[in-house]
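ok so i was messing around last nite and threw this chain in just to see what happens. nothing serious, just curious
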Amino acid sequence: MSKKEYKRYLVTSALPYANGPVHIGHLAGVYVPSDIYVRYLRLRGRDVVWVCGSDEHGVPITIKARKEGVSPQDVVDKYNDIIKRSFEGLGISFDIYSRTTSPTHYKTASEFFRTLYDKGVFSEATSQQYYDEEAKTFLADRYIMGTCPHCQAEGAYGDQCEKCGSTLNPTDLINPKSMISGSAPVMKETTHWYLPLDKYEPALREWILEGHKEWKTNVYGQCKSWMDLGLQPRAVSRDLNWGIPVPVEGAEGKVLYVWFDAPIGYISATKDLTPEWEKYWKSEDTKMVHFIGKDNIVFHCIVFPAMLMAHGGYILPENVPANEFLNLEGDKISTSRNWAVWLNEYLEDMPGKQDVLRYVLCANAPETKDNDFTWKDYQARNNNELVAVLGNFVNRALVLTHKYYNGVVPEAGELTDYDREILAELPRIKGALEESLENYRFREALKEAMNIARLGNKYLADTEPWKVVKTDPERVKTILNVALQIVANTTVAIEPFMPFSAEKLLRMLAVEKIEWDMIGRSDIIPAGHTISTPELLFEKIEDEVIERQVQKLQDTKRANEAAAAKVAEQKESVTFDEFGKMDIRVSKVVAAEKVAKTKKLLKLTVDTGIDTRTIVSGIAEYYTPEELVGRQILVLVNLLPRELKGITSEGMILMSADATGKLTLLAPTDEVPVGSQVG
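result:
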């Protein structure tokens, strides 16, 4: 790894796409790790700028706008606000959160394109693409639907079949149709500009494969495989009416492709933040680090660096510590299926638990492989680690100080060998903590920060001041002084990971700030200093809280299944006379009870208007006997009797079943006379 000394740091985080809120996958992959890193750099007194913002162009935005009947600007305004407020709620501490619809960004992206255009970097090529003659517009891949050539499923998109997962080109579709007008599109010529990545492949190989062998294996490996396959020119423009217009004469109706426009957002955000933006982007003594998910590796390690090389004058990233993906309850997070824990909803559902989420996402971060978030693990980590280790240690140390010394820090007497042994661990932990943070191993770093609290817990358990006070009160002064020094060490060590808890600890210790360099010291809190009243750092999370969140996901899963279900095929045709043989009557449930030794069966006594009879029905999972008594239902009364569990059932209750198998009673919307015929 490079040992170069840097005067400043430029940290970027992947721009979240403004067609929906952010979820825990985004947080674990990008925003929590980058916040930890930046908070650490700030605590070390480093000159650091951290930029991010909403990515607000591209086809998915236009599709969403069309579906909702609003303008693309309305869509991005809505989600930019939600995303920004959510980040603030979780303590994500960007220096600036910008957006790619800002005037600065339009100007910066246009100038960037124009510089490359004027230098003759781009190649121009004409190709045939689908065109909607009714709407008079070229169609993006996602605006074309048809039959999948592989699985024959209807409704496949021009880039992918969501039924079988196949990657497609629009021309692969059978019977393609425009999603705008519904008409069959035609092929039409269009001209676009291309970034010749192939020309930059030798420089990229040298820079990455030779110069950055220290990069994470997932990042290095993906870059190598891309280049081994051979880089190809990539279009930097597309036919669309939403985006930054291509700043070239004769390019009407064309905009900058979103992959080209978005990373320039880092530059425009820095411009909006500081007039000294160039020293962060163009000085060799600046260290630039991109935090991204693995789906963005190619853009940040190959495409964007090639753009910067082509432009000239810009530095390249020193590291791109991309994470893998986070799954949810054993299933891939999916925004289209609403299978996610959305940050804005979490902050509403779990008030005051920002640090619990930050802790769990870091402790379980997908740094080297995909990982899984479960609500049970979230609960266990809170109760067994945050409450039982960190919270317990802090509470004991502070409560005992108040109990024995009215909150005044006692003076330490002579240290024992054990005291010195414990305190000697602090500088060692600090070294390991820093080494992990500097090398983007945040899970490891969090363990080290928590090790200080574990050390404190062990120290109090071993020294037992609540017992020793009865025989050697002077010794207790030393024990609690040492314990409070460990609390102070813990406070600053956890700040990058759990800033809200660190702030709470500072208030309880009644100190404004503890410098990072103080970690390892045993004199942070002076004797005679008065601490504030202790309060619980974390609270136990009960089962019912977790069950509500799990149920929320289960409801989502059922809704997805129902939405994806196909309507059953029509049955064989019947004659009117055959239908007329069925005698369906409005009936009333007179009595109901469960059938012994069964889970599903209810025994109903039903007034059909003709007679009172018994019907056995498998609806016990959906209705209680109490719910049914007095209710009107529809009954097929001339069905031949059938014996179920020794009970003769005379008729069938009419019900509907959804995609999940849930049964719902069919009944008249208004009260009608019992015995009325249906048909």
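not much to say yet. The CA atoms of residues 46 and 72 lie 39 Å apart.
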